[in-house]
From TrEMBL:
Name assigned to this protein: 3-oxoacyl-[acyl-carrier protein] reductase
InterPro entries in the cross-refs: NAD(P)-bd_dom_sf, SDR, SDR_fam
Stated family: Belongs to the short-chain dehydrogenases/reductases (SDR) family.
A Pfam match: adh_short_C2
UniProt superkingdom: Bacteria
């Protein structure tokens, strides 16, 4: 299958690890010019060196902290003065875990800013270029909690649902311009985030990390955790011309763990 991604420009958020990094690497292999976005410049430089350049791609990076939406807005506006983007991967680390009944209001506000508000800033800034070219792919990495809330992730469950509905509304508005907006819902994926969740569960329950891992994997029909590269494959397809008639959907990539359709 020819994905026809050569010479496309992509902005990849959370690009220094996990799903973001894997997606940046996969897109680059398909000929995409990738702009990496994260807050750690040293890590950005390291990932930049790993990106494929065999098709004369031109890669760069942008240092930005999603806890500061106004700073992000200034930086992305500056970046789009010299380049228009066809692809946006919204991908940000999830809020800390905990019961929703014990969550502080500030936790919701911080997560709302970091996820929905920053996503919105990026879309609004990149949208004119996408419309002008008649091609746009907005892909949001969210969570299976959109379909089935996860215990112990109260703030995350709430914010992910807001992002999913924001995304669906955008898809309805932008489809006529050749722009699609879709969500990827990762299940338990072998990233630093999952390692953190396992450690927290082990500390709270008194079980070993191995016991927690085995219990989590047993709940997955595939009986294993996903790999970031498996999520990146879905990102790359949704970013392509081949996925032009897929719009406004949630795609669980979870080994079958989510019980709902």
């Amino acid at each position: 299958m020819n994905l026809n991604l050569k010479n496309k420009n992509a902005l990849v958020c959370g690009a220094t690890g996990g799903i973001g990094k894997a997606s940046a690497l996969a897109l680059a292999e398909e000929g995409v010019n990738v702009t990496l976005v994260a807050r750690n410049e040293d890590k950005l430089k390291s990932v930049l060196e790993e990106l494929d350049q065999n098709q004369n791609q031109s890669h760069t990076y942008l240092v930005a902290d999603f806890s500061n939406p106004s700073e992000l807005e200034n930086k992305i506006k500056e970046a789009t003065q010299s380049k228009a983007y066809h692809i946006l991967l919204n991908n940000t680390g999830g809020p800390p875990g905990g019961k929703i009944s014990e969550a502080k209001t500030q936790e919701f506000l911080a997560a709302f800013n970091q996820h929905l508000i920053c996503n919105h800033i990026l879309v609004q800034t990149l949208l004119p270029g996408m419309k002008e070219r008649g091609y746009g792919r907005v892909i949001n990495v969210i969570s299976t909690s959109v379909k089935q809330p996860l215990d112990g992730l109260g703030v995350s469950n709430t914010i992910r649902g807001a992002v999913a509905n924001w995304s669906k509304t955008l898809a309805n508005e932008l489809g006529e311009f050749g722009i699609t907006v879709n969500n990827i819902l990762p299940g338990a994926t072998a990233t630093g985030r999952l390692t953190e969740i396992i450690k927290n569960k082990a500390n709270k329950t008194g079980k070993t990390e191995e016991e927690v891992t085995q219990a989590m994997q047993s709940a997955i029909p595939a009986k294993r955790f996903g790999q970031p590269e498996e999520l990146a494959n879905v990102v790359t397809f949704l970013a392509s011309e081949a996925a032009g008639y897929i719009n406004g959907i949630n795609v669980p990539v979870d080994g079958g763990r989510t019980k709902s359709l």
